[in-house]
Design a protein that fits this description.
Pfam families: Oxidored_FMN (PF00724)
CATH superfamily: Aldolase class I
Number of domains: 1
Keywords: Flavoprotein, Oxidoreductase
InterPro entries: Aldolase_TIM, NADH_flavin_oxidoreductase, OxRdtase_FMN_N
CATH class: Alpha Beta
Largest sheet: 8 strands, parallel, barrel
Radius of gyration: 18 Å
Domain NADH:flavin oxidoreductase/NADH oxidase N-terminal: 1-116, 117-302
Helix content: 25-40%
Strand order of the largest sheet: 3-4-7-8-9-10-11-12
CATH topology: TIM Barrel
Protein name: FAD/FMN dependent oxidoreductase
Bound molecules: flavin mononucleotide
Structural class: alpha/beta
Length: 335
């Protein structure tokens, strides 16, 4: 796990990934980083994850979800992203940094959110353009890669799920056209592009599961795929499980393996990894990269300090974020 690994045109220092985690450290409406955003990310960079996927950055105001989230919706935002990248690289010259591009769709804050079953083709084409422009900003700001957020009931993940997407036209769930169009548009920007992919909705009777995720992975060419799932389906299968479940998405990895898709591109699996021993289960299954979210809120130095501080999965971090506060670990006594 402490060996290097190549993703697209860059190399990561090791196999540990910081999975995107909204920190709630930007201005309320406009998504501009505050000082604590920069402080937070410098410390994280010093902890030597190989790939640091920042936090969901909204590509359009209409796609903003929650408060104090990061924006990448205007050219003005480039300077803030560039500054963050520069100070992270000054703290750790091996760090590789990814910008997660998000459109919240129906979960957005705006009054007239984009409803996937009512959207017109023109609405979707506008979204494609917004992702493309955001990717261009990410490139100008100096990121190593971008990641399309197609998980957790955000816009892209709803369009690939037959639970949410009831359309029968070319945007029907089984054709994943919006995700495909966004990928193609972002590809023109010439920056490596990965995806955080919903691989199981856990909703009985609906087909967004490991098999349908495999269809998408087989059909589209991403530079890396991060396996995720859950969301607003069954509570015990939430993306951010409170219990002690480890390695939630092993069944997806097994399906990828069975379909010879595990080696098609680099795969990151995130969800229920607390330490390097847990991660070994995934490495043993042939997964090259393991993602951590809550663990790194608890202890962003755990890869180098002996892992003294345990995350108890109380989920106060996400509760605070939902209340419009900073998503810090309550055990660390910071906000
Ligand atoms: C406070 C908080 C904020 C999160 N924000 C994001 C986000 O911005 N983008 C995303 O894809 N996932 C987000 N997640 C989900 C995590 O990336 C991860 O998929 C999930 O927490 C499971 O991993 P873990 O068991 O290592 O925490 C967030 C999770 C938490 C706890």
């Amino acid at each position: 796990m402490f060996t290097t690994y190549k993703i697209a045109n860059f190399e990561v220092e090791n196999r540990s990934v910081r999975s995107a985690t909204a920190t709630g450290t930007c201005t309320l409406q406009t998504g501009i980083p505050e000082q604590k955003f920069y402080d937070f990310y410098v410390s994280l960079a010093r902890g030597h994850v190989g790939l640091l996927i920042q936090e969901n950055a909204f590509v359009a105001i209409k796609g903003q979800h929650g408060s104090r989230r990061l924006g990448i919706h205007t050219d003005e935002m480039i300077q803030y992203h560039r500054k963050a990248n520069e100070i992270m690289r000054a703290a750790n010259d091996k760090i590789r940094i990814c910008c997660q591009l998000t459109h919240a769709g129906p979960n957005g804050n705006a009054e007239n959110t984009l409803q996937i079953n009512e959207a017109t083709a023109a609405d979707f084409e506008e979204v494609v353009q917004q992702f493309k422009e955001a990717a261009l900003r990410a490139k100008k700001a100096g990121y190593d890669c971008v990641q399309l957020h197609s998980g957790h009931t955000y816009l892209l993940s709803q369009t690939i799920s037959d639970f949410y997407n009831k359309r029968t036209d070319e945007y029907r769930a089984s054709d994943f056209k919006l995700l495909r169009d966004v990928l193609e548009a972002v590809r023109t920007v010439d920056i490596p592009v990965g995806v955080k992919l919903q691989c199981d909705d856990y909703i009985e009777g609906h087909s967004m599961n490991a098999a349908s995720a495999c269809k998408i992975i087989s059909a589209l060419k991403f530079d890396f795929v991060e396996v995720t799932g859950g969301g607003q389906g069954v509570a015990k299968y939430s993306t951010i499980r409170a219990g002690k479940d480890q390695y939630y998405y092993r069944h997806v990895i097994q399906e990828l393996k069975a379909q010879n898709l595990l080696d098609k591109q680099p795969v990151i699996v995130t969800g229920g990894f607390e330490n390097v021993e847990d991660a070994q289960m995934a490495f043993d299954d042939g997964v090259p990269l393991v993602g951590y979210s809550r663990k790194l809120l608890r202890n962003d130095q755990f890869l180098i300090d002996g892992d003294a501080k345990k995350c108890v999965r109380c989920n106060q971090c996400i509760i605070s974020l939902g209340q419009g506060k900073t998503a810090m670990c309550s055990l660390n006594n910071v906000e």
